[in-house]
Specification:
With 128 residues, the chain is mainly alpha-helical. The protein has one domain (13-125). The protein is built from four helices and four strands, in the order H-H-H-E-E-E-E-H. The strands form two sheets. A two-stranded antiparallel sheet has the order 1-2. Strand 3 (105-108) and strand 4 (111-114) form a beta hairpin. It is elongated, with a radius of gyration of 27 Å.
């Protein structure tokens, strides 16, 4: 009995080889998972930009209905319940187009734009 308790108590913790194997397995899993996670993050940022542009376009249309001939940022903002959307905090890629973080939304030619790009151009570039 004394010998069994000695064997049970003599092994405390993991060996170096066991730890290296676990770290290697975790590194392989992380390498496999990272590209997919990065893709999902970019898709969510794309969705937010498209949603913001759509909200601004709706506000522009509401300003037109209210009688503003050529609504700009000020008139569109007045129609938006939640205020003007904040610019993206980091770069977002739509196919060959990259919107830099901090690029502000604007109104140009009666349409919402971010940089020089409308919803239609961004959707076309991202094949949406």
């Amino acid at each position: 009995m004394n010998r069994i308790s000695h064997l049970l108590n003599s092994r405390r913790g993991f060996t170096l080889i066991e730890m290296i194997v676990v770290v290697a397995i975790l590194a392989i899993l992380a390498t496999i998972a990272y590209p997919k996670v990065a893709e999902y993050v970019n898709q969510s940022r794309q969705s937010k930009i498209l949603s913001d542009l759509s909200a601004i376009n709706t506000a522009i249309e509401m300003a037109k209905v209210a009688g503003t001939a050529d609504p700009g940022v000020k008139e569109a903002t007045a129609q938006m319940a939640s205020g003007w959307p904040s610019p993206p905090s980091s770069d977002v890629t739509f196919g060959s187009i990259t919107i830099k973080g901090g690029t502000a939304y604007s109104v140009s030619g009666g349409q919402a734009v971010i940089g020089d790009y409308t919803i239609a151009k961004l959707k076309e570039a991202a094949n949406l």
